[in-house]
Amino acid sequence: MGTVSERTRSVLVAVVLVAIYVALTTLRQAGAIDEYWSQVMDLSLIITISAVGLSLIYGFTGQFSLGHAAFYGIGAYVAGYVTKTLGGSLPLYVLALAAGAAFAAAVAFLIGLPILRLRSDYLGIATLGFGIIVKVVMDNTDKFLPAMGGPRGMLGIPQVTTFGWIYWAAVATIVLARNLVHSSPGRAAIAVREDEIAADIMGIDTTRYKTLMFVLGAGLAGLAGGLYAHRYPFLHPTSFDFLKSLDVLLIVVLGGLGSLTGTVVTAIGWVFLLEWLRNVLPQDFLDWRGVIYALVLIVLMILRPQGLLGGRELVLVPRREPAKGGSSHAAA
């Protein structure tokens, strides 16, 4: 089958996405996918949104961040606080998601201005420190906002996130990221990743594009946190610590730096792998899950140091290539 026009390709992709949504929704409603695996599926898509955010920051812009879970947690706590105090109606739920994403993005902008002047390991250490600060603040929120629970965790958040919200939010996130990467700002960010000094010499405002990607990536993490807060009944500061940042970082690296589809596939596979190990390992060996997937990581890094897809992308439908020799009358 030959390649197709961009418009036809977009329609076909939309049809496939709707078909997948209808199929999964039908299976869930029929009980073929039980509540446990439904929760795992939802979590995998939420993690995908957060991981795509980090992919913009690190995979495409080359800014090494070890504090991504902090933005995830900020979005969760802010969104959860809005609906817990004001109510869980649809307008307030949408407001809560927007508030969580916006607050995470605003914090990223404020801290990004000074720390994005750092590079490589120094930037990683700075973002790690930021993540620790956020964790400490979460542990002490009950002292100024008792509803947030502090070290006891946050309960009472309306559980209004549905599979539809999560699925289409993930789709929108991937589409947004894809379009951004192929835009002028995206190409500028990639130039920064490849050689920041050369990009600066060429007249690219490196600070501007690093900050842009950092803010957008944090906003996506905040959105993921808001969805998480309204899908799972308990928030605790330990859910957003350094280890969670490391998980998302590993997903981006394993998927392949600069590959959105690699990040998506790895995020979903990662969550399902951990839960599968929880089910197949005897109770006495559950603590060995960490060892097992650490070994998997080591093997993958030895066999595929560039990650699952490297910098390549998977496509559902190939694009139409211009005809050689100047003629562009390709069949759709």
State the distance separating the first and last CA atoms. Answer: 10 Å
How many helices does DSSP assign? Answer: 12
> What's the SSE pattern?
HHHHHHHHHHHH
Q: Measured on Cα atoms, how large is the radius of gyration? A: 21 Å
By DSSP, the count of extended strands is: 0
Strand % is under 5%
Q: What is the multimeric organization of the chains shown?
A: single chain
Q: How many independent structural domains?
A: 2
- Give the low-pLDDT segments: 322-332
Helix fraction by DSSP (H/I, runs of at least 4): 55-70%
Shape: globular
**Average of pLDDT:** 87
Biggest sheet features:
none
Q: What structural class do you assign from the helix and strand content?
A: mainly alpha
Keywords: Cell membrane, Membrane, Transmembrane, Transmembrane helix
Main location: membrane
Subcellular location: Cell membrane
Membrane topology: Multi-pass membrane protein
List the helices and strands and how they pair.
Layout: H1 6-30, H2 35-59, H3 68-86, H4 90-115, H5 120-139, H6 163-181, H7 184-194, H8 196-201, H9 206-229, H10 242-255, H11 260-280, H12 289-303
Helix pairs in contact: 2-6, 2-9, 2-10, 2-11, 3-4, 3-5, 3-9, 4-9, 7-9, 10-11
Protein model, in words:
The chain is mainly alpha-helical and 332 residues long. The protein has two domains: 1-33; 35-246, no CATH class. It has twelve helices and no strands. It has helices at 6-30, 35-59, 68-86, 90-115, 120-139, 163-181, 184-194, 196-201, 206-229, 242-255, 260-280, 289-303. Helix 4 runs antiparallel to helix 9. The radius of gyration is 21 Å and the shape is globular. The protein starts with 5 loop residues before the first helix and ends in a 29-residue tail after the last helix. Mean pLDDT is 87; it is low at 322-332. Pfam families: BPD_transp_2 (PF02653).
